[in-house]
Amino acid sequence: MKTTKKISVLVADDHIVVREGLCSLLNADENFRVVGETRTGREAVELTLALRPDVVLMDIAMPVLNGLEATKQILATDPAAKVLILSAYSDDEYVMRTTAAGAVGFLEKQTSAAILTKAIHEVAKGNTFFSPTIARHLHISQNKPLDRHGLPKANAAHLTPRESEVLQLVAEGMANRQIGADLGISVKTVEKHRQHLMDKLNIHDTAGLTRHAIATGVIESGVRLTIM
User: Fold this and answer.
1) pLDDT per residue over 134-156, tens digit each?
2) How many CA atoms does the CB half-sphere of 211 hold within 13 Å?
3) Which of 21-25, 96-100, 153-157 shows the lowest mean pLDDT across its residues?
4) With contact defined as beta carbons under 8 Å apart, do 37 and 51 qualify?
5) Which residues are paired to 168 by β-bridges?
6) Residues 221, 207: Cα–Cα separation, whole Å
7) Residue 200 binned pLDDT confidence (cut-offs 50, 70, 90)
8) Highest-confidence range of 12-26, 131-145, 170-184, by mean pLDDT?
9) Do the beta carbons of residue 123 and residue 55 sit within 8 Å?
10) pLDDT tier for residue 92 given thresholds of 50, 70 and 90
11) From the centroid of its chain, how far is CA 212?
12) Which of 32-36, 75-79, 192-196 has the largest mean confidence?
C-alpha cells in the first residue's frame, strides 16, 4: 500500500496558545507533520534553513524579527521556500507587503481549520492561496501604485534588511548596546543604522520610530517589549 508523504510544516507565532493550537491541529491530521515551532522571526529563519519544511506558517508581528523581514531573509537564502502568512492583520497594505516579500499566501487568523489545511495543501503544491475575504479585495490592492520595491508609494522609503532589524529592536525598547550584542555589531554601527533610519523616514526621535514601527506592522500596537 502506497503511503502518502506528509507535508512538513514549521509554525512561527509568538502567542503560545495560538502556536500550540496550530501544532495540535496539524499533528492530528494525517496529512501533516509539524517539524518545528518558534516564537521569533529570527529563529524562524534559522529553523527554516536547517529543517527545510515544505511550508512555513508565519505570523507577522513577532519579537526580534517580524514575519515580513523573516520572509525576506528566508527567500533570499532559499528562493524555493514556501511561506504562508497567518496574521491578525489583513489590511490590503499588509497583504501587498508580504506578497512583495515573496510569501505565497495570506490567511486571517480567524480563518477556519478547513481553509487553513486547504491553504497548506495548495502552497505545498506550488500554488498561491489567499483567504476568501482577502482574495476578494486583492485585485483592488493590485491596482494601487507601487514603488520599484513592490511597496505602496505612500511607504516608499526602502530600508535595508539590517535597518529593518534595527528598527524593530529599537521599537521593542532595546538600547544601542543591547542591539549591538544581539546583532553582533558594534554600538557605533548601531548608531549609524539608527541615523540612516531617521534620515530615510524623516523621523528624529525614538518615539517616532516606535510609532512608525507600529503603524507599519513591524511590532504590534500597544506592545513594546524589552528582549532579555
Assistant:
1) 777 665 454 444 444 444 444 44
2) 9
3) 153-157
4) no
5) none
6) 13
7) confident
8) 12-26
9) yes
10) confident
11) 17
12) 32-36
Spatial separation of the C-alpha atoms in residues 45 and 67, rounded to whole Å: 10
Copy the grid coordinates of residue 67.
514575519
CB 57 within 8 A of CB 86: yes
pTM: 0.69
> Using H for helix, E for strand and C for coil, what is the string for the chain?
CCCCCCEEEEEECCCHHHHHHHHHHHHCCCCEEEEEEECCHHHHHHHHHHHCCCEEEECCCCCCCCHHHHHHHHHHHCCCCCEEEEECCCCHHHHHHHHHHCCCEEEECCCCHHHHHHHHHHHHCCCCEECHHHHHHHHHHHCCCECCCCCEHHHCCCCCHHHHHHHHHHHCCCCHHHHHHHHCCCHHHHHHHHHHHHHHHCCCCHHHHHHHHHHCCCCCCCCCCCCC
